[in-house]
Specification:
With 246 residues, this protein is of the alpha+beta class. Helix content is 23%, strand content 26%. The strands form 3 sheets. The chain has a 6-stranded antiparallel β-sheet with strand order 1-2-3-10-5-8, covered by helices on one side. α2 packs across α3. The longest helix is centred in the N-terminal third of the chain and has 14 residues.
Amino acid sequence: MKTEAPLDLVLIAFNVRCLRMAHAQTQAELATVAGVDKATVHRLECGHRVHRRSLEKICGGLGESVDFVNSVLPYGLPEDRRKLFIHRQAENNWFASGDRRTRIPADSQARVQQPEERLRLGRQGLVRSFQAYMVVMPNSPGTSQFEIFERSWVSPNPTYEDAILLILRGEVIFRAADQVVLLGLGDSIGYSTDEEATVEPVHAIGPSDLPPLLLAITANRRGHVPIEFKDRKRMRTRHAAPRPAD
């Protein structure tokens, strides 16, 4: 008798979001295709549990199975092989992470695009952090921005094994590999995603404070080539041919 793998809600949320973005869909558009309401898609992308049938419908709307989105998956990439990947700050699409609200408005995704709404939710302790995906290259590197209101997990998708954090605003406490590091404006730190890492503001975010803003840069280690989106069902990283010694 085949047993189902336990659901990794964080991984599923990440993969569903990436696949939806690769299909150039909004949450509302995916909800329509899947035959569920937008709030259900939003809850799933925030890492909350939804009914199994709703999960199956959402995965089906993306053309994938539950088993697939519950597995390691690279960032969703378009099929065309562009030479330049340009992202404008105005194109940021922010997502709530660690959303504690018992009732999430249907238009919540549109609301959190406004800085005032993110500040309101973060300062009230309703959302732990916000993330905006930016440039994602086909052969490895990717970037994201984070607004951190509380201690948050910052390791990227398991496909990427190395990361760098650059502090764009404020001060944070970074923890990984049994070390605690204080980082300020302009500081950066590189770490292996084999280590569980967390980052948090040095001080509680007050009514007039802005949260720390971080830029995360992710990449694969030397000697590894990520699976490409069109080959994603292989769900494993290929080993590149070893480079000659220097």
